[in-house]
Amino acid sequence: MSKPLPLEHGKYYHVYNRGNNRENIFIEERNYPYFLKLYAQHIFPIADTFAYCLMRNHFHLLVRIKTDEEIQKTLRVLETLRVSSKTLRVYQVFSNFFNAYTKAINKAYGRTGSLFEHPFGRIEVTPEAYYSRLVIYIHQNPQKHGFVSHFSDWPYSSYHTLLSAKPTHLRRDDVLKWFGGVDNLAATHQHEMIERQMAAQAQDRSLSRGHGLWRDKLPLVK
């Protein structure tokens, strides 16, 4: 197995993970807000979050790991986690978060062992022009996997929060800047969805034509 990509200060990452053996990591509705509560406690002090989507057996995040100087400003919060900024290991903070959620789920549902796959996935995101595309990908994931017929119907993503004016810990202003405003954010999400549907339909038609040609070449069986 290749060595996991290190999480470096000041860089953007697509972070994702799924249940061990593909099992669900969210058993009941109440698990989603609890996951976000723990996320706020552990991850917000060390990383900016731009988008997220939580699904039954996996999740996606777009984050930027804060610089040393930025983390120093949140030292008071970090101390509540018993983490020294001088010895902080970003990977370990994420691991602590996953472990805290796993312990809660194991206790609540009488299970044992790891809940998540190890190590968790992360991909450095570059260039900046790709940030908005990744936000769309994250939000449209529930539709891609068939959880809902339209991605906007899924309640456990950052999509509606980014469209609203409600207080949030998300870096909403940055995301809106990438898209050129809230209206364009919504329009681009819809446009991307329609384009993907048309591409899928075109592929289906192409496959159908190909199968038809292949059938035409079959010898007649008498």
Any chance you could write out the topology, listing elements then pairs?
Blueprint: E1 12-18, H1 31-42, E2 47-54, E3 58-65, H2 68-73, H3 75-80, H4 90-109, E4 121-124, H5 131-144, H6 159-163, H7 172-179, H8 182-216
Antiparallel strand pairs: 1-3, 1-4, 2-3
Helix pairs in contact: 1-4
Note down, in words, how this protein is organized.
The chain has helices spanning 31-42, 68-73, 75-80, 90-109, 131-144, 159-163, 172-179, 182-216; strands at residues 12-18, 47-54, 58-65, 121-124. By secondary structure, the protein is an alpha+beta fold. The protein has one domain: Alpha-Beta Plaits, CATH 3.30.70. Strand 2 (47-54) and strand 3 (58-65) form a beta hairpin. Helix 1 runs antiparallel to helix 4.
Order of helices and strands: EHEEHHHEHHHH
Task: Please report which band the strand proportion falls in: under 5%, 5-15%, 15-25%, 25-35%, 35-45% or over 45%.
Answer: 5-15%
What shape does the CA trace take? Answer: globular
Q: What is the averaged pLDDT score?
A: 86
**Count of alpha and pi helical runs:** 8
Q: Can you tell me the CATH superfamily? A: Transposase IS200-like
Strand order of the largest sheet: 2-3-1-4
Largest sheet: 4 strands, antiparallel
CATH top level class name = Alpha Beta
Task: Describe this structure in a few short sentences.
This protein has one domain (12-212): Transposase IS200-like (Alpha-Beta Plaits).
Kindly list the characteristics that best describe this protein.
globular; Alpha-Beta Plaits; 4-stranded antiparallel β-sheet; alpha+beta; 222 residues
